[in-house]
Amino acid sequence: MVQSGQITFYTHMYSPYCHRVHIALEEVQADYKAVTINVMEWPQWYNTKVNPITRKIPAITYGGPAAPPEDPSPEAVKLTESMVIVEFLADLFPGKLRPSDPVQLAYARLFVALFDTKVHEAFKGFFFMGTPASDLLDQLEGIQARLPETGFAVGEFSIADVAAAPFLARIMLLLENDIGKYPVGEGKKAFEELQKPKFARLMKYIADIKARSSFRASYDHAQVLFIWQNNPAIQRA
Ligand SMILES: N[C@@H](CCC(=O)N[C@@H](CS)C(=O)NCC(=O)O)C(=O)O
């Protein structure tokens, strides 16, 4: 299959889940229109007309006749859940994002699952609840242990890296700037820990991700920093 209809991508720069879809759209070089959702004044039309299932971003509409983003055609396919959309894009653009070898594909999906469970839990714990950094660092060490000596998570760039990149970028950004509910200084301390030789492979992986054109096209460091600095959910009391 190839893209045969319009793609409207509902997103916001702060969201790591939206960022996954953005990276995938850039990787496959889809023809798409991005629509930023005002997360401070969540639009009712989004919940009723685009994503009544989870009412979360990201979402896409695919196909159907031309229509304004806030009133998509009933004929357009509506999809939500970041990795469902990423896998859909991998189907629309065969040969990209998925390794052809079934074992490597299974490993890629396992990597995604680790991010959606353990890394995400540790991310929420440290930045949103102020739990000790050790759990986050342990999870990052576990991720590092799964990486091959060189290249991306399963060699070629794949769905695994699409899933991981937004979280790794935000983890580094938040730590370096000491943003989060943990005690002052704990973020910078964890950031320094990650600069030690022990984490060299993970840091190289993150550098490779950030150098990728799909990442550069989908990430504005200053803007994401500003948004997270002002995110009320992770401000210290
Ligand atoms: N499992 C979902 C998570 C999506 C998600 O949590 N989106 C957040 C933004 S990062 C959201 O829309 N939050 C708004 C809300 O919960 O009202 C995915 O993979 O897409």
Task: Explain what this protein looks like in three dimensions.
The protein has a 4-stranded mixed β-sheet, with helices on one face. It is α+β, with helices and mostly antiparallel strands and 237 residues long. Strand 1, helix 1 (16-27) and strand 2 (33-36) form a beta-alpha-beta unit. The chain is built from 10 helices and 4 strands, in the order βαβαββαααααααα. The protein has helices at residues 16-27, 44-50, 82-92, 102-129, 133-146, 159-176, 186-194, 200-211, 213-216, 221-229; strands spanning 7-11, 33-36, 59-62, 77-80. The chain folds into 2 domains: 7-92, Glutaredoxin (3-Layer(aba) Sandwich); 102-234, Glutathione S-transferase Yfyf (Class Pi), Chain A, domain 2 (Up-down Bundle). The chain binds glutathione (GSH). The site of glutathione has 8 residues, from helix 3.
SSE diagram, text form:
Elements: E1 7-11, H1 16-27, E2 33-36, H2 44-50, E3 59-62, E4 77-80, H3 82-92, H4 102-129, H5 133-146, H6 159-176, H7 186-194, H8 200-211, H9 213-216, H10 221-229
Parallel strand pairs: 1-2
Antiparallel strand pairs: 1-3, 3-4
Please provide a brief summary of the model:
The chain has 237 residues and is an alpha+beta fold. Helix content is 52%, strand content 7%.
* Molecular shape: globular
By CATH, the topology of the largest domain is Glutathione S-transferase Yfyf (Class Pi), Chain A, domain 2
Total domain count: 2
Distance between the termini: 51 Å
Task: Report the uncertain regions.
Answer: none
Strand order of the largest sheet: 2-1-3-4
Q: Helix fraction?
A: 40-55%
What molecules are bound to this protein?
glutathione
The total count of helices amounts to: 10
